[in-house]
Amino acid sequence: MSEKELLNDLLTSEKQIIGLYETGITETTYPELRNVMNDNLNQLFNDQYQIFDHMRQKGYYQVKAAPAQDIDQARQQFSQMQTQMGQ
Fold first, then answer.
1. Confidence at residue 84, expressed as pLDDT on a 0 to 100 scale
2. 61 by DSSP, 3-state: which?
3. Measured distance CA(49)–CA(60) in Å, rounded
4. Name one Pfam family in it (predicted).
5. What angle do CA 69, 71, 75 make, to 5 degrees?
6. What angle do CA 30, 35, 36 make, to 5 degrees?
7. Maximum pairwise Cα distance, the chain
8. 26 exposure class (CB count in 10 Å sphere: 0-12, 13-18, 19+)
9. Whole-angstrom distance, CA of residue 31 vs CA of residue 71
């Protein structure tokens, strides 16, 4: 297995584990467990980013810059959602 394949497998696994943690956190009612799971989830976010960033630096994960118009549109949509939610 090449380095690129290994890193891609790790990245995919991290994303899947993050999804499982998100589901578990929203479904648990035990505060201490929820806190531990939140701490673990934050570590998973960091691990996932480190893998992604390493892949990006090696050229294994190409990232396209978003056009300014798309960024502005996303900001407007987010702002509208915040307004609708009363925040």
1. 87
2. coil
3. 14
4. Coat_F
5. 115
6. 100
7. 51
8. exposed
9. 37
Residue 82: what residue type? Q
Measured CA to CA, the distance from residue 2 to residue 24 in angstroms comes to 33
Which residue carries 């995919």 as its tokens? 12
CB 14 within 8 A of CB 51: yes
What digits encode the pLDDT tens for the residues 49-86?
Answer: 999 999 999 999 998 888 989 898 989 999 888 888 88
CA distance 55 to 61: 5
pLDDT band at 87 (very low <50, low <70, confident <90, very high): low
Which is nearest to 25 in space by CA: 40, 43, 47? Answer: 40
Handedness of CA 30, 33, 39, 42 (dihedral sign): negative
Q: Which amino acid, residue 64?
A: K
